[in-house]
Amino acid sequence: MSDKDFKALETGLTRPVSPLISSYMRTSLKTLRKHLPIIENSFIYPYNNGRIEGTKNKIKVLNHVNYGYRNLQNYKNRFILPFKLKPADKQSEQKQLRSKAA
């Protein structure tokens, strides 16, 4: 049996359920059956949004940890560090602000 055997999953989910199974498990099986076409896509295509979700979570954690920074530049630099981006120098940032205001 391969790791991505959708037919085996589908067979297991469409099989009749034993009356001894708890109501929570019945609900879980019902949910999986409902989303079976979407689950099949995850077996077929190699794409997922794990990287985006990880970045979003990192931003939320940093935002929580950085609560209370008084200096906006330090706040920005604290976000840039974990993502390995180059910090913007103040002069180029001020030039951008002036050009937007003009």
Characterise the protein shown here.
The chain has 102 residues and is mainly α. The chain folds into 2 domains: 6-44, no CATH class; 50-101, no CATH class. The chain has 6 helices and no strands. The chain has helices spanning 6-14, 23-34, 36-44, 50-65, 72-80, 90-101. The protein is elongated, with a radius of gyration of 24 Å. The mean pLDDT is 82. This is Transposase IS204/IS1001/IS1096/IS1165 DDE domain-containing protein. Pfam families: DDE_Tnp_ISL3. Residues 25-78 form the Transposase IS204/IS1001/IS1096/IS1165 DDE domain.
State the gist of this model.
This protein is mainly α and 102 residues long. It has two domains: 39 residues, no CATH class; 52 residues, no CATH class.
**Average predicted local confidence, pLDDT:** 82
Q: What string gives the helices and strands in order?
A: HHHHHH
Structural class: mainly alpha
Q: How far do the termini sit from each other?
A: 65 Å
Number of domains: 2
Content of β-strand: under 5%
Number of helices: 6
Q: What Rg, in angstroms, do the CA atoms define?
A: 24 Å
* Low-confidence regions: none
What would the principal axes of the Cα set say about the shape?
Answer: elongated
Helix content: 55-70%
Total count of strands:
0
Largest sheet: none
Features of the shown structure:
102 residues, mainly alpha, 2 domains, 6 helices, elongated
Topology:
Elements lengths: L5 H9 L8 H12 L1 H9 L5 H16 L6 H9 L9 H12 L1
